[in-house]
Amino acid sequence: METENTTSEVSELESTFSVEKQKRIFKIIVIGDSNVGKTCLTFRFCGGKFPDKTEATIGVDFRERTLEIDTETIKLQLWDTAGQERFRKSMVQHYYRNVHAVVFVYDMTKLASFENMPAWIDECDRHSLSADVPRILVGNKCDEKDKIQVSTNLAQKFADMHCMPLFETSAKDDSEADNVEAIFMTLAHKLKAHKQMMNKALPRYNSTDMKRAKVISIGREKSGSSSDCAC
Ligand SMILES: Nc1nc2c(ncn2[C@@H]2O[C@H](COP(=O)(O)OP(=O)(O)OP(=O)(O)O)[C@@H](O)[C@H]2O)c(=O)[nH]1
Ligand SMILES: [Mg+2]
């Protein structure tokens, strides 16, 4: 038997639909060596805290956060990728498909993770990432003050050379939470400035991909401040 919606139900549905229809969704991939803290950073931004425990990411984990920016609602879909080659090789082409922004992460206490940055940039270039896709460099674990191996000076030079803003932060230290916020808010503002509606560019993944992925969808209120890309 067919049921009829009341007028108020219909208008409620329509407004939900129109809001949904207009919500732009941006795919951001987070890449870098294993153990640099990609999972913790994305969890901090989407879940609002440092995770109790993490394991090496296999394939990709998705985390989402809805933001309200200047009256527009946008959704950031973070692709927390695997750093270990054996856990990422079958997924790499999916990471780069229809990507809107890239966050490169190194561990400030591990020089090798910084020295590998050119290899991560090469991987992006090999997948023909357009030059207008915003990129951000993030040094994580700044809370480990006695163990720092990558100086700000060195990282800033590299960031300037590649025309990327640099953020040094900690997913672990609660007092750095605003800084983690700033990383993604910087991207959100850059992406929002894009004129085109991006709904068509939603990532497509098949059932095999989905089996390998944990989907975590957390919508949080906008918080913290934003800044424009320094680049
Ligand atoms: N001190 C400190 N430790 C951190 C921080 N972020 C992450 N860690 C620790 O670093 C380890 C690796 O963190 P993950 O987030 O799992 O690293 P990942 O980059 O996702 O690693 P893969 O999934 O293997 O690519 C964990 O033991 C975390 O607790 C941080 O800001 N400070
Ligand atoms: Mg991980």
TrEMBL record:
<dbReference type="GO" id="GO:0005525">
    <property type="term" value="F:GTP binding"/>
</dbReference>
<dbReference type="GO" id="GO:0003925">
    <property type="term" value="F:G protein activity"/>
</dbReference>
<dbReference type="InterPro" id="IPR041822">
    <property type="entry name" value="Rab33A/B"/>
</dbReference>
<keyword id="KW-0342">GTP-binding</keyword>
<keyword id="KW-0378">Hydrolase</keyword>
<keyword id="KW-0488">Methylation</keyword>
<protein>
    <recommendedName>
        <fullName>small monomeric GTPase</fullName>
        <ecNumber>3.6.5.2</ecNumber>
    </recommendedName>
</protein>
<comment type="similarity">
    <text>Belongs to the small GTPase superfamily. Rab family.</text>
</comment>
<dbReference type="GO" id="GO:0005794">
    <property type="term" value="C:Golgi apparatus"/>
</dbReference>
<dbReference type="GO" id="GO:0005768">
    <property type="term" value="C:endosome"/>
</dbReference>
<keyword id="KW-0636">Prenylation</keyword>
<keyword id="KW-0449">Lipoprotein</keyword>
<keyword id="KW-0547">Nucleotide-binding</keyword>
<keyword id="KW-0472">Membrane</keyword>
<dbReference type="GO" id="GO:0003924">
    <property type="term" value="F:GTPase activity"/>
</dbReference>
<dbReference type="InterPro" id="IPR005225">
    <property type="entry name" value="Small_GTP-bd"/>
</dbReference>
<dbReference type="InterPro" id="IPR027417">
    <property type="entry name" value="P-loop_NTPase"/>
</dbReference>
<dbReference type="Pfam" id="PF00071">
    <property type="entry name" value="Ras"/>
</dbReference>
<dbReference type="InterPro" id="IPR001806">
    <property type="entry name" value="Small_GTPase"/>
</dbReference>
<dbReference type="GO" id="GO:0032482">
    <property type="term" value="P:Rab protein signal transduction"/>
</dbReference>
